[in-house]
Structure to design on (209 residues):
């Protein structure tokens, strides 16, 4: 799922501008090809099709992998308002913000939900509860494993990391676990002069496995 273009008039209730994510288009197309070559069926919702309405219309419990290449926002004072940004369709009364509070009511049966977005691993620290945010809601909804980020990420390096992660997971017998595939993808970025700084590869963490 990748909205790609974030026209500010679509997101009038957001105080900060949401930059377009051109790298996400290549990201989801390459990931789709990786799965297709392994004879896995895929559904891609991109650009105008990446609406909250379309996502909720999918039988999400049938998918083993859910990948979101978009923006995310965490509200630490009101965790239920933490959100994943999709495309709005106001005629269907969907504002394009998939809130944490809504995710609790979605039936997910995925081996992995990947949030290729900014700060999706953050949340409110509550005594006796831990971190309350998008991660908590996705796990409650049925996700077995999550990949989330701890700070604002780069579009280009994130796209490369995600493509390499899925390639490692699907094509490497030695690195086919989620943790092994993510580690190998990070090591590849470390070896790239352009993306060797921790800012580019360190924010993404695996929760679950």
């Amino acid at each position: 799922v990748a909205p790609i273009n974030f026209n500010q008039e679509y997101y009038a209730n957001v105080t900060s501008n949401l930059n377009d994510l051109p790298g996400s288009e290549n990201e989801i197309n390459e990931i789709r090809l990786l799965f297709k070559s392994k004879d896995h069926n895929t559904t891609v919702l991109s650009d105008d099709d990446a609406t909250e309405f379309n996502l909720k219309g999918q039988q999400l419990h049938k998918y083993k992998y859910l990948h979101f290449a978009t923006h995310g926002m965490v509200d630490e004072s009101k965790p239920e308002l933490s959100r994943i940004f999709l495309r709005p369709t106001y005629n269907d009364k969907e504002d394009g913000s998939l809130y944490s509070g809504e995710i609790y009511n979605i039936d997910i049966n995925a081996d992995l939900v990947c949030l290729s977005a900014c700060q999706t691993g953050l949340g409110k620290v509550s005594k006796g509860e831990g971190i309350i945010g998008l991660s908590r809601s996705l796990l409650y909804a049925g996700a077995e494993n999550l990949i989330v980020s701890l700070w604002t990420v780069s579009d280009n390096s994130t796209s490369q990391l995600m493509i390499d992660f899925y390639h490692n997971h699907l094509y490497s017998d030695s690195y086919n676990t989620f943790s092994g595939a993510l580690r190998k993808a990070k090591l590849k970025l470390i070896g790239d002069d352009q993306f060797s700084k921790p800012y580019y590869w360190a924010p993404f963490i695996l929760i679950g496995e």
Q: What stands out?
A: The longest helix spans residues 155-171. The first strand starts at residue 65 and ends at 69. The chain has a mean pLDDT of 86. Residues 116 and 130 are 23 Å apart (CA to CA).
